[in-house]
Queue: 2 jobs
Job 1
Amino acid sequence: MSFIDVSNVWLRYDDAVVLERLNARVAQGEFITIVGTSGCGKTSFLRMLLGVEQPSKGDIRIDGAPLRDEPDADRGIVFQRYSVFPHLTALENLLVVRELEQAPLLGRLFGKARAAAQEEARAMLRKVGLEHAAERYPHQLSGGMQQRLAIAQALLKRPKVLLLDEPFGALDPGIRADMHELILDIWRDTRLNIFMVTHDLREGFYLGTRLWVFDKVRNDPQAPNAYGSHITYDIPVGQTEHSLYKRIDRDLTVTRQAQGL
Amino acid sequence: MKRIINIKPDHTTRFLLGALPFVVLLLVYLFASDARLALNPDDKLMPAFSDFGAAIQRMVFEPSARTGEYLFWGDTWASLQRLFLGVGVSALVGLLVGLFNGAVPLARAHLAPIVTVWSLIPPMAILPILFIIFGLGELSKVMLIALGITPFIIRDLQNKALELPAEQLIKAQTLGASSWQVIMRVVLPQIMPRLIEAVRLSLGAAWLFLIAAEAIAAQDGLGYRIFLVRRYLDMDVILPYVAWITLLAFLTDWLLRRLSLAFYPWFHSNGGGRT
């Protein structure tokens, strides 16, 4: 039995089909990277998993149950930007996870409960290499450190699925490599289901266990919005050859050119 | 030669440049006043500085011969009370309504249209109504200030709440936050420094409404005094009063800014609240 079931999902806006005929089964613990050209609907798909967008047709199930149509604690998210709270220090950004959990009315903890939550938050900061920055506000952290914090925050809630929306898109290549290391470590430790959207094919190709390519197979030059994307490649990562990388790269380039991007 | 847009004055130059207009204004006044007084020693329009001194001595440091009160301090106290009460009520109502309008689409659909219409009513036009309903006492003056600036604060805070990145609200929900918790832990704390900003911006309007209301119907207050002594062309009282009001306004603004800097350091280094 698969953990996540995507069956015949379509996503349609007023005059445009974004996604069509999406079908996929995902087992527990898979790390899926999703690549595609801009506007191919990969982020829309992630937003459907998150619950902020609903499929026009078809449904997505997690653990047999249909997705809730709003974000909840089952699905953690890290965006490219704005993923941490600017008015809280790094430590408070993690502390708030337990405070929301245990203090439904005030959203704040005091005394022993606070000390315990603080202990846990510090341990998590240490894990992502931010213990020296506990008292700093996000604007005092570099882009990479902010993303580390965002990942730590999402992990602390122990979601069933972790969604990453181009989380390293704004980072320098060197920092990006560190972040890949971190996310792989986390995945090995927790065996979380991870979905990561990226526009960098290389990143998608070498990170994770499974690669999805979102692309349009049908393209009508007179009506560019008439057809949506679907999963054109669904391949296990690690057993792939460079020639395949080249072929996917070429396919995406063709789509990009057809769309005039 | 550097382009003029690239020349940045150093600290001293900036101070001197900034002080220059004040000095010029003062000198122009001194010369003009001297010239007028030389022609007509009884001229009341531009009193000499010695006349200001005498007026200040009379108003600030000596009890009034008629009532035995220190007029200047009585006026200041009465005006500040009205101002702070009016602004305080506005800030509170503005925060509550603005917060919920910004955070809850249902509340916004419900209240935003009427707040928009309300904000378009010129407050001075309904001052007579306030006098009729609330009488000529303190309440009508406080109400004028409150009715005048509350809609501005509501709309400003509502927009500021809407400008918070959607990512933050989604993130909070994925951490399990309820609507109430999102409002209390994510929206409210980020709106607070913006409330201070909105109050600072609306203080000018608040003073305007206060002085207008006092000019029309009051027994004391800074605005009342200015309009009272206008009958006798007492420029030696009016000008110090105007300077005092300006100083009070400046101090209030400065205090609010310090408050915001002390409590919301993240806001100011994020590029918000530069003014």
Job 2
Amino acid sequence: MSRPAAISLRGVRKRFGPVVAVDGIDLEVAEGECLGLLGPNGAGKSTTMRMLTAQAIADEGEIEVLGRRLPGDSKRARAECGVVPQQDNLDVELTARQILAVFARLYRVPRRERGAAVDRALEIAGLTERADSVVDELSGGMRRRLLIARGLVHRPRLVLLDEPTVGLDPQVRQELWSLIDALRTEGVTVLMSTHYIEEAERLADRVAVMAKGQIVAYGRPSDLVREHAGRETLEVYGPPARLREVEARASERGLSTRRSGTAVAILRAEDVNGFDVQGERRAASLEDVFVVLTGAEGE
Amino acid sequence: MSGRADVPAGAEPGPGAPASDGAAAGQGAPSPRARRIGRLEPAAIAGVMSRDVTVFTRYWLSTTFSSVMEPVIYLLAFGFGLGVLVPRVAGLDYIDFIGTGIVATAALFSSVFPGMFSTFIKYRFQHTYDALLAAPVDTEELVTAEVTWISIRAGVYCMAPLVVAVFFGLRPGPGVVLVPLIGFLTGFGFASFGVTIAAFAKSIDNFNYVISAVVTPLFLVAGAFFPVDGLPAVAAAIAQINPLFHSVELVRHAVFGLEPVADLISVGVLVAFAVLMWRIAIWRMRARLID
């Protein structure tokens, strides 16, 4: 990893009254990398994202974004950053084109280049045809694409995406994934928080798993799976009594399990010999890691 | 900022990242405090205002309608109602007295209410400020832009009652050209006051306390509808520290003849009020918007 870091956090801690939202995290995102910040709701992902734009100020630790020290020099970093918030905060009474024009200006795109920047962003969002529709008339998926395009209008070097596909139907989610993937191929650094495991698995070069304000695992998705969940998982289905019995027997043998709805998953099934329980063997997934590390069910 | 080619200049983290880890902090780099750059950048303020202007193109008609209708109603009600009983007040025809009086109150209402309501709605319900503060805009610039925009509107729309009053028989002198500036200055203080209240408010209902206990008394004890010298001593004294009173006085003097000493004092009061409220608004909004 000789590439310079686009984002670097050292010993960052953030409290809200008695609650420690971010509890001393260290994190580096290399330039050109896509890092997935994975964790259940309330793990501290959004607070971490807000600290990167100085909308939350760390109580302790050091943060650098694109070589700028925060919070003092945050404004310069923000000029080269695109932010896509979790919450849709588009001006509903404006048209797509008007919104992009306002943000091109806010992000200091020179006057002469603004028109082209807006057209380009409309194209990214696939909204060229709907450029003059007010936001209220756009579908949920279009709005989300506009929200992303708004963060890209000034060609940022770094894009911060906070739960980019939360609450969207699978088809729209796929569309957004290809949009994010396109950024990656362009060499834009991406930091994306998500609690969708599949999203992290597909898009992220590396994943940092957060739980209770700390980073509990960090690495390539495949390495994390190998390290924390082994190669295979044995999934056993059955009525609750049966599942309890399987769990008890597994724990007698020191095997780690997790309960997911109607099944018990036994991790590291490849190491199991002579455990005469019938079930389905499947490749271990990032979801297994997620559950093992955070204790929460993924989605 | 449009091309990526021009950025690496600023982004030069040490090449040997691990080795320079310790050194980076201690390197000749100035402390973060010293490097706090570009306060109140015109580009940031213009950016925020461009949003306001764009949004305004959507509702200018209703704003214009209400700011013209309101003085018409006031002038009809007071002019024909009260004007019959009191032909002259403080040496002026009642229509002249009230026609100038409601200019300042128009500046008050077109600044304090947007300051309170639209600020609250923007940060609480629309999350607009979250988006703006993620851009290269600081709270100081955000508040300054919002207040400046509201003040410009106040400066323009406070002319509406004056124009209406002309149809009712008011004959302004040349000093009338100063009125938009007085409206702007008045608006700046009251818009900042409104933003401050919005920053404190827990819910939109909280505004009722402020409207009843602060805005209405200020509005009534300002000499807009009746002279303050007739009031009990205490109220008359309060009027002297009421910025709206000074705004009313300035408008009247601008329209009918300036009184240099008194007017300079009035300008001083309005400027002091504007600057004080502006700084408080920034301070409170920062506390509200930045965790």
